[in-house]
C-alpha cells in the first residue's frame, strides 16, 4: 500500500464524519426518551433512602455502613462554589435518588431476558448489546474490533456483553453492584482508595447514594483482549444519576476503557455526580476515554444536565501509566477534573481534553497532575472551544512534591472563540517543591479565523461544514488520542454541538 | 461565460471605493489575462466575484452563464463552477490536505445533486493529478498549506482547481513566488485544463507566465476599471514599457 492510500484511511475518518453530520438534521440527536415503567425510591435524601438503595442492590452490611458513613459526612459538607460556574441553588431534596425499570425487578440472567424496550433504547443509541454486533462505522480496519459494553440505564446496569470471553482471559467486567456481591475482597480493598468517601462534596454524595456503575479487574500480566466500555443513559425525569466506576489494572496489565453518556431533552435540570477510581499497579497501563454528550439544555439555557464528576487515577506502581482523554460536548454545567496521582517512580500521566461550550453552556474542567514519585512525567493538552454565550474555563493543577525529583510536566492549553459573546479562561496552578523537576506551560487564545472559513467556503463547503472542519483541525491532537470508534463519534459531535454558532 | 457589468465596489466599513464601474466579459473557452499596477483592484475583483465578506457592491452585476453571482453564498458560487486560486492561500492547521480536498469535491457534487466520488476513485484521480504537479504524498498528508513554501502553496491551489473542475477559473498572481520550473509545472497544469467549456481569468504582473499560458485577450486594469483591452501583444508592451504610456493614453 502506498503512502497515499494509508493516509486516506486515516483522513477518511473526517470525511465520513462530515457526511454523517450533514445527514443529521436534528441538533441534539439523543434527546428522545424511552417510555418505560419505572420504580422510584421516594423523593429526597435521608438515611432511609441510603438504606433503601443498599437493600435494593442486595448489598452486604459493610457496604451499607460505608454508604452511611459517607452520608453522615456529606451532611456536614458544603457545595463547592470556587468554579467559574453560575447556576441556581440545587435542592437536593427535590430529586429522586433511585429509579429502576420495573422490568429489571428480577435481575435478568442474560441479555436475552432483558426488556426489549431497553435493548431497543441502546440499539437506537448505536450501542451494540448483542455480541455479534460491532460498533458502527469502523470502516477500513482489517479486523473488526470488538467492544464489550456495560449498559447503565438510570440507576441500574442493564447488562454486560462478552462476559464469558473476558472471564476466560481472567478479566472481570461487570456492574459494580454485582462486584460488591461476587468480588467483595477486591471491592473492599480498592473502593475509596483513590477517591476517599469524604473527598469532596459531590464524591461524598456519590459514595452515599451510588446505585450502579462498572467494575473492571485486569489480572497481573494480562492485556485485556478487547476494549471495554460503559454507556450511561439517563432516562427518568427529576432523577439524579450517581454511578461509580472502579478499575484495577494489576501488575503489567493493560486495558482501554471507553465511556459514553446521553440523556433526553427535559426542561428541568438533572443532577449527575459520578466517581471513577482507577488503580494502576507496577508496569500496568490504563487508557480511559470519555465522550460526554449529556443533554446540554436549549439555546436559552433551559434544562440540561448538571455534571459534577470526580475522576482520579492512582499510578500506584512503578512505571505505571494512565491516559485520560475526554471530549466534553454536553451538559449545561460541567465540573470535572480527571486527575493523575503519579505515586510510583517513573510513572506517567496524560490528559487530553476537548471541551466545547455553546449557547448557555458552562464548563469548568481540567486536570490535576500530582507528582509524588521520582522521574514521573505528565502531559496536558487541553482544547477549549466556546461559542454562543458560553463560558469555558480550563483549571489545572500541577504539583511536584519534594521527592518527585527529575520529574516533568508539559501543559498546552488552547482556547478557540466563535463569536464575541462567549468567554474562555485559563486557570493554571503550579507548585514545584524540588529543584530538579521542570514544568512547562503554554497557552493560546484565538478566534475562529474568517479567512479560513472563506477559504473553505470558496471551495464549496457551507458555513457549518467549514466551521466543523476548522474546529476539528484545532482539536486534532486530542482526537488522535481517541480510539477510532470514538474519534469518529467525537468529530461528528464537535460539529453538532457547534450548530447555530455561526451566521 | 463571465459577464461583469458596471461593477462598483467599496469597502464595507470604510468609504474607500475600489472598483469604479468595471466591465469585463470572458467568453466560454477563452483565456483572458489582467495586468495592472499594484493596488488597482485586481485581487478585490477576484474576492468580490467569489463572495468574500467586507465589500459592498454599490452597483453593477456579475453573471456566470447568465446566473447572477453576486447574490449567492461563496459555496454556491463554487458549486456553480467558479474557482479562485488565491494570491495568498490560507493555512488550516490540523486539517489534512487530502481531507480538505475530498470534503470540497463532495460538497460541490452534493450541492449540484451529483453522486459523491467514492474513496477509491478520489484517491486514484488525486494521485495522478498531484503527481503531474510534483506534489508528493507527504504534502497531501500535511495540514492544508501549513508550512508549505510559497511555491508549494501555489501548486496546491492548482491541484484543488484540477480536482474541482470549475467552469470559470480565476488565478490571482499564481506565478508570483514560483521558480522557473514550478512556473512551467503550473502552466502545464493550467494548459491541461484548457478546453472549450472552461474559461480562465489570469491575473499577473509578468509576461513570463503568459509565455506559457497563451492568453486570447489581455486587459489592463487601473484605478478600479479595465482601461485597455487587446491581444497578447499588450502584455509585451507592458513588459517592455511599463504602464505609464498606456495610462497616459487612456486618461
Ligand atoms: N480590506 C481592505 N481594507 C483596506 N483597504 C483595502 C482592503 N482591500 C483592498 N484595499 C485597498 O484597495 C486597493 C486595491 O487592492 P487590491 O488588493 O485589490 O489590489 P491589487 O490590484 O490586487 O494589487 P497587487 O497587484 O498589489 O496585488 C488597495 O489600495 C488596497 O490597499
Ligand atoms: Mg492582488
Automatic annotation (TrEMBL), chain A:
- Ranges for domain SUF system FeS cluster assembly SufBD N-terminal come to 167-223
Q: Which GO terms describe its biological process?
A: iron-sulfur cluster assembly
Give the SUF system FeS cluster assembly SufBD core domain ranges.
232-474
Pfam families the UniProt entry points to = SUFBD_core, SufBD_N
Show the InterPro entries listed in the entry. Answer: Fe-S_cluster_assembly_SufBD (IPR055346), SUF_FeS_clus_asmbl_SufB (IPR010231), SUF_FeS_clus_asmbl_SufBD_core (IPR000825), SUF_FeS_clus_asmbl_SufBD_sf (IPR037284), SufBD_N (IPR045595)
Q: Which PANTHER family match?
A: FES CLUSTER ASSEMBLY PROTEIN SUF (PTHR30508), UPF0051 PROTEIN ABCI8, CHLOROPLASTIC-RELATED (PTHR30508:SF1)
The family classification in the record reads: Belongs to the iron-sulfur cluster assembly SufBD family.
Q: What is this protein called?
A: Fe-S cluster assembly protein SufB
Tell me which species this is from. Answer: Gemmobacter lanyuensis
Starting at the broadest rank, the lineage of the source organism is: Bacteria, Pseudomonadati, Pseudomonadota, Alphaproteobacteria, Rhodobacterales
UniProtKB/TrEMBL annotation, chain B:
**One MF term from GO for this chain?**
ATP binding
At the top level of its lineage, which domain of life is listed? Bacteria
| Alphabetized SMART domains for the sequence | AAA
Among InterPro entries, the record links this protein to: AAA+_ATPase, ABC_transporter-like_ATP-bd, ABC_transporter-like_CS, FeS-cluster_ATPase_SufC, P-loop_NTPase
**What CDD domains does this protein map onto?**
ABC_FeS_Assembly
Q: Which UniProt keywords apply?
A: ATP-binding, Nucleotide-binding
Which Pfam families does the annotation name? ABC_tran
Where does the ABC transporter domain start and stop, copy by copy? 2-248
* Family membership: Belongs to the ABC transporter superfamily. Ycf16 family.
Name of this chain's protein? ABC transporter ATP-binding protein
